[in-house]
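Appendix B, record 7
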Amino acid sequence: MKRINVLHCILTIFCILILCSCGRRKPEYVIGVSQCSENEWRKKFNDELRIAAFSDSNVELKISTAYDDAKLQIEQIDKFVDMKVDLLIVATGQVTVSEAIERAYDKGIPVIVFDRRPRSDKYTAYIGADNEETGRNIARYLSAMVKKEEGKIVEICGLSTSASGIERRRGFDDEVAKHDNMDVVEHLEADWTNQMAYHKMDSLLSVPHTSFNYVFAHNDRMAMGAKKAARKHGLDLSKIHFIGIDAMPQKGGGMQLVRDGELLASYIYPTRGDKVMELAMDILGKKKFKKENLLSSALVTSDNASVLLMQDEELKRQSAYLLSLRKRVEATTNAFDTQRCYLFMLIFMVALLIIACVLAVKAYLAKTKYNARLKDSMRKQKNMTEEMERMTQKQLRFFTNVSHELRTPLTLISGPADRLAEYHGISGEARKLVEMIRRNVGILTQMVSEILEFRKIQNDKATLMLNRFDLASDLKTWADDFKTVAERKQIGISVVAAEEPNVVIADREKIAHIFFNLMTNAIKYTPVKGAIVISLKHADGIYSISVADNGKGMSGDDAQHIFERFYQASDSVGGTGIGLAIVKAYVDLHRGTVGVESEPGKGSVFTVAFPETQPGYDEKLDKQTLIQADTQLIDDYSVKDVIAKQNLSIVTGSEDYDSNRPLVLIIDDNASMRSYLRSILSLQYNVMEAQNGEEGLAVAKKNVPQLVVCDVMMPVMDGLEFCRLMKDDVSTCHIPIILLTARTLDEQRAEAYSTGADSYITKPFSAETLEARVANLLKNRSQLRFIFSGSQQEQQEQEALDDKDQTFIKQLRKVIKSHIPDADYSVEDLGDEMGLSRVQLYRKVKALTGYSVVDLLRKARLAKAKHLLETTDMNISEVAYEVGFTTPSYFTKRFKEEYGIKPGEVE
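Structure tokens (predicted):
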């Protein structure tokens, strides 16, 4: 096996070598070039870059053009950044492009700004002509040309957002202002194009305007556009001179226009792509470079235009020769790469033949061993599968036997409970407890029956007892069984079915079971004032029953698995996870289908479809019995609001209503459990209720109970999350929390305590245990009896609190001390500064200190007064007013009550 692995490694190495040898050589550097626009000047710059890059085969140029679209240029620069180019060359079109340049620079990519400066200094180097100096030189040239006669100039500017346009105008206008013989009579804003300059000049000449004899355009194209407009309006062009910038040597460029007399002069705006590439290689090679690199330039007039054009022709000839040489080098390199590729392929084929022979022998031997191991593995897997099946069957038999055995004690519980319910001498709380026993015995009996029925289905022993009945009539009757419980939640139930007979042959009891299960779920998950619509349709020999509600719905993942056995949705309310599995099994027995369409927040539609008749019907065996839904079993886990009046009746409007009867909040999604807990605790405590953690959290923050008893497994928000949020909030973190749960594992208990729970009681539990645990938590709660005393006891008591309560007490002490002299400072003012309502502040302070907020303010003032009397020469009246008392007599009275001596007796 090791030898085969070695051969595999050799084969992999050969493949890599061939791929490397045949592939194109990867350049060492990738340089991105972002051009703002497309014109002859920029094409010349791009060609110069390419020629300069030919000298180094390790450089790859990627050039993009934005066509004067700033948004497009920003996108192109960001794309280069995402490509992680090694260096970026940017010719900015507008100042808004600066943000993209900054992003590239901040990501560590060297940025060379060419031609136009950005508005930020976040770039590696700048290279280009000095646009401001260019404007000045043109102005100086015009001043020399004008001499003593007056020069009236029209200036045609580039884009107002373009850095070069701004700088050229600033340089030209500043220099013109220094010469008395020149004046700019008009500024025209164009966009660097011939057409826009033509339109701007045409508009100027079409209305009364100041006469002029010179036109200075920021580039040659605009100068020619302006001249075209002047020619259109019949101006004497011999008396008007046009000057531009760029002096491109191409046909129709500024240099030829000057030579031919179309322009008076033009200023060479250098491209020098070779210099830009040289700077780029210095940066990539970690060599020294200048951040600011200005290119030299010159004025083109009729005196030197011809010479410059001849020099350009020679440069073009040399460039073409360099390009041809480069192509030859590339052809030779490609030929060499191809030959090397063929050589490696030949070596690879020889090696592959050798390896193939070796592997063929090895494969035969390995296959023999593998087949033996595979047979052994299949044998073991078969044994394991059979063992798992036996274990599963044993477990199912165990639960079935337990379920059978449970029927006897359930009978012995339900029988006496029914007899007690019939006894008229039982009333009040005792009758409520009896009804609670009967209802929960019914729930347990239903669960046992479902387990036994599920066992039948698992063993393929479930059969159909066929009946002939009117499905529409029975649906309406069964739906009426749910109307009482629906009315308690103000849920509307409607049945939509055709009036004609809808006779079907099916197992009536199983169809009823299917309907009852779907309706029970619909009632559970439909909110108050919701609606449930039951529809019956018949087409092509198929009946379909749909139960639609406008409840909370379910996710797509839950809907996909909801009919699987033991599956429960993440926010399910009660249940065992086998109800819908039984529904599907019953539908399958009828050769039908069942499905659900649901959307979170909008409700669910369950649809059952089955044939109108089933094979094997015998009228003699058709025995139909009365079928009625036990809707009493629905209420315990129905998704409904806890009656607000029940909680509201406890709140009397007084902050201290619970001084003798502390307020306890019960949170459980099971109505019977809440009722049972209330019956235990209501004798000694005021009790409020909530049906899930989210609702309980809101009640706790608003009413600040002294203790919370909370279930762990609940929908919407479970007890663990509720506990965590309670302990994280400063207004509730002091409240003891008892968690009730059926989870008995040590790690589950540890998880509960890690969220901040103060006690953990597993079900079932005795009332005495709960009462004792509640009383002990309320009795042992730490309180600051010596607050504002400044004693060692105060420090010890504060350290016994948790971190959040210590922080709260420190802030409370600081705020109170800062307002001691203010006699008008109230409890509401203190609550506003602490960020708590009056009720929240009162109950938290009372829980932590044993004092009311008013008493605490008074103790702070008296402690300050005692300190002043001991350490200063202030008299009693001065001290009283200093600590916020309005009268010295009242101060004296309270001081004596607090310390047992009069203020005058303090030494």
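Remarks on this record: Confidence is low (pLDDT under 50) at residues 635-645, 651-657. The first strand starts at residue 29 and ends at 35.
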